[in-house]
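Exam prep: given the inputs below (a chain plus zinc ion), describe the expected output before reading on.
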Amino acid sequence: MVHPDTYVRPTDKGLGLFAKKSFKKGEIIWIADDLDLKYPLPDYLSFEDNVRSILNRYSYMDFKNRVVIPWDSGKYVNHSCAPNSTGLLEFDNISIALRDIEPDEEIVEDYCCYYGHFETFHCLCGSPHCRGIIGYNNSYDPSLRLRMRDIAGALLSFDQRLLHFKFEENREFLQILSSAQTEYATEG
Ligand SMILES: [Zn+2]
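Solution:
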């Protein structure tokens, strides 16, 4: 589920997801829920090409080799080589603000923080560090993800609105968060 304080509007890359309010570093912007579509990779690959050519834009593959298609506007997050949101090493299906994000700023992720994605495209991010062509294969770079030990302080420092929604899909994350609370919260 995407954070409710976001909106979608057209960009030169197609539709994009934007912040409606300011987000703090460590704020959860998206987390998988029980409503998202999830297909084992072989099932996904068995879809007809013309179906996958559309779904490939909106899907990614997780650590369990499931292809995930967010049911809401979470699927409109565009790629940037200078992202402001990314995943967590310890829990796959979550997006967390990498830094403070201003209202009306586009929320962007480096697609190579996903375990797998299905598009090859010429990047239009405009970053001085733009990598140009973003390929679909062998692209996962774990160094693009946050580590709990680095983000726990920020993550635990305020009320996370998306965690008000309880889903089976998030149970593992809540356990990880609870361990982090014990491990890191007292370190200051
Ligand atoms: Zn780029």
